[in-house]
Write a structure and sequence with these properties.
6-stranded antiparallel β-sheet, mainly beta, 5-stranded antiparallel β-sheet, 19 strands, 220 residues
Length: 220
């Protein structure tokens, strides 16, 4: 092709969410392909990484190799999870990427997952949907599995690719973990949703009237 003062059309699929996306194309030719797995979808990692593409995470059970960090078991007990080993020669960031997922059959499409971020030098866990950061958490969250949900309603009718990104903190006590990743309908989680309350539950999305107020350092 030869041009003077013009840009030649480069035909191809210009949708980054498509399986055959062409980053060099500037003109969509209608060839985009979306051969996706239909939601609802769930992965527990009990039988390996399934259909996920892994770059740096470790499929494990029963605790990580270093103390004072990481989970001692999976969320249900006796199964596997994916974790970030932050001892020795550490890669950062690391990624865990889903296959293409079709959420069109869901009324309230939602990504849910459990995360374990226990360790004094915990780094950052990010969640990307089609390349856009939609959720992020940093620092020590205690020796517990925490439930999280991400609203995917903005992607209704659009195939999605989910990516979990782990970023190294400063030392070996930063072994974050993931388990029970699901693409399904929104789940009501009851608890105290008042962040100023004594018994605030950050994982709750529906208040159950159980909040205990803090008055002058005392609970009421």
């Amino acid at each position: 092709d030869f041009n003077v003062g013009a840009v030649c059309a480069v035909l191809g699929c210009t949708d980054a969410a498509a399986l055959n996306y062409d980053p060099l194309a500037n003109t969509d030719d209608g060839s985009c392909s979306y051969t996706c797995t239909a939601a609802p979808y769930c992965e527990t990692f009990d039988n390996g990484i399934g259909t996920w593409t892994n770059s740096g995470w470790v499929n494990d059970a029963g605790g990580t190799t270093s103390g004072s960090t990481g989970p001692s078991d999976d969320i249900t007990g006796g199964g596997n999870y994916m974790y970030y080993e932050t001892s020795g020669s550490v890669a950062s960031p690391i990624t865990l990427t889903s296959l293409c997922l079709d959420v069109s059959a869901l009324a309230s499409p939602t990504l849910s997952f459990y995360n374990h971020m226990f360790g004094a030098t915990m780094g950052t866990l990010d969640v990307l949907v089609n390349g856009t950061n939609v959720w992020s958490l940093s620092g020590n969250q205690g020796n517990q599995w925490s439930f999280a949900q991400v609203d995917l309603s903005a992607y209704a009718g659009t195939p999605v690719i989910i990516e979990f990104v782990g970023t190294y903190g400063t030392s070996y006590t930063g072994d974050m973990a993931l388990d029970n990743i699901s693409i399904d309908e929104f789940i009501l989680v009851y608890g105290c949703t008042d962040s100023t309350a004594f018994n605030y539950d950050f994982s709750a999305n529906t208040d159950d009237g159980s909040c205990i107020a803090v008055v002058n350092g005392c609970t009421d």
